[in-house]
Amino acid sequence: MLCVLPVPAQARRFVVVLDAAHGGADTGAVLSAAGTAGGQSGDRQALEKQTLDKQALEKQTLDKQTLEKEMTLAMSQQLRALLVARGFTVVETRENDQLVDADARAVAANRAHADACLTLHATEAGTGVHLFVSSLGQLQPTLLMPWKTVQAGWVQSSLKLSSALHASLTATGNGSGSDVEIPVTMGRTSLPAIDSMACPAVAVEVAPWHGGAGSEVVDVTDLDYRTRVLQAVAAGLLSWRSEAGQP
Amino acid sequence: MTPRYQKILFTVLFLTSVLMTAVLVRLREHAHDQLLQGITEQGTTAPAVAPPEPVTFMVADDGTSTLRAESMAFPLPVEPEARARAVLNRLLAQYASPQSQHPLPTETDPVEAVYLMAESDPAPGTPSDRSASEPATQIHSSPEPASRRNQIAIVDLTQSFAATHPSGLETETLTVLSICATLHANLPRVAEVRFLVGGQQQATLNGHADLTQTYLTAASAAASGAQP
């Protein structure tokens, strides 16, 4: 399959595609949560006072689990609000709990003629934020490119976008009321959705933060932590937009 | 009227044939069980008298998202496929230790088998990165013998290992890259690695790392920022 690459318009708005990973039957990872997906702690103390039988305890355990597909959708919606407030045009690959295959995600991104594409993931493994760019080798973009390796024409741009996000995320420890930086790692991987995207594309994976106040583990479902990460991502995209020459 | 001795003879022959049928069925089941055990136990443990051999593990670190080289020495089987399997099982067993920087669940022999095949079209040099172009067909006037060609390793992981592997982009990617880089470090002719899970092709390891593509071992070390 071939992909006809989008021809950029002369003057248009800065488009960011947010791709909430997983959805529908593809639940992604199971995340243990201190609270709910929305980060609310709930009335845990009241619950602790209650004497619960075994069944109720099991149900409580299940209630504390959040699926990755729910978390990525929550992240996408929160980041959309942050970006719209900063003047970005935002396109989401899914707005509810539905199964969207990798090709459909790439088609949505390519039709939007995006200036930046972010695929959002969440995990229980590792710490901090993980940024991934396609492991394809760089090629000169041509009018027609093989569908599964379209991203090869944008790998250099994707690496620059990843660097802009990295710089913004590592700056979160300074002047944000916290003394501890969120650790950020960068890597290369093969993701079918990203490999078919004709735009600078980065996968952003949020993991628990092993280094919050008092070296406690801040869960990925923690609303404050998530907000801090997404605000840094929004700041990184602002920086990226400035580099692209748009105010 | 059938004589008595014939009745006795017939009864004895009938009982013997029933007994032989039962023994035959049991022997067949026993042989089948032994065949299945042979597949999973074939050459995985080196004889105790074998001398320790140096082995390099490319160990993943979740904290830095990199691989670092670690050297060990232990006895290895002689047969290359069994050797590769023994090295990978030892590598993955390390990740089950509490001190691991890339924690994985404890699993006995998570690598079911490793198959090594000579590349059909020998590459002119070691690839430095996953190429975006379609594989080019090359015509060689004097093809190299199979014993000198680069090899493709097919790593067959157990289903339970894939199902219990922590789900995440970074952790799954590092496991895959660690396997590829370790294979290359110990079997330098292995240039490409493909993955199976339980003998079948599977889309991802546990929801993230793409197992449908062929991984280039030289690129694996570069992609993960391998440290000596």
- The CATH homologous superfamily of chain A is named Zn-dependent exopeptidases
Instruction: Note the total helix count of chain A.
Output: 7
Across the major sheet of chain B, the strand order is 3-4-5-6
- How would a crystallographer describe the biggest sheet of chain B? 4 strands, mixed
Shape of chain B: elongated
Helical residues, percent of chain B: 25-40%
Mean pLDDT of chain B: 83
Main structural class of chain A: alpha/beta
Count of distinct structural domains of chain B: 2
Distance between the termini of chain B: 93 Å
Order of helices and strands of chain B: HEEHEEHHEEH
Chain pair forming the biggest interface: A-B, 34 and 30 residues
Tell me the structural class of chain B: alpha+beta
Q: Could you tell me how far the N terminus lies from the C terminus of chain A, measured between alpha carbons in angstroms? A: 37 Å
What's the structural domain tally of chain A? 1
Describe this structure in words.
With 247 residues, chain A is α/β, with parallel strands linked by helices. Chain A has helices at 44-49, 54-63, 68-85, 102-111, 155-170, 192-195, 223-243; strands at 2-4, 15-20, 30-32, 65-67, 89-92, 116-122, 129-134, 144-146, 184-189, 201-206, 209-210, 217-218. In chain A, strand 11 and strand 12 (217-218) form a beta hairpin. Chain B is α+β, with helices and mostly antiparallel strands. Chain B folds into two domains: 1-41; 53-124 and 149-223, no CATH class. Helix content of chain B is 37%, strand content 19%. A four-stranded mixed beta sheet of chain B has the order 3-4-5-6. Chain B has a two-stranded antiparallel ribbon with strand order 1-2. In chain B, strand 1 and strand 2 form a beta hairpin. Classes of the chains: A alpha/beta (247), B alpha+beta (228). The A-B interface holds A 22, 26, 28-30, 68, 121, 123-127, 130, 132, 135-139, 146, 149, 152, 183, 185-192, 203, 205, 207 and B 62-65, 103, 128-134, 166-171, 173, 206-210, 212-213, 219, 223-225.
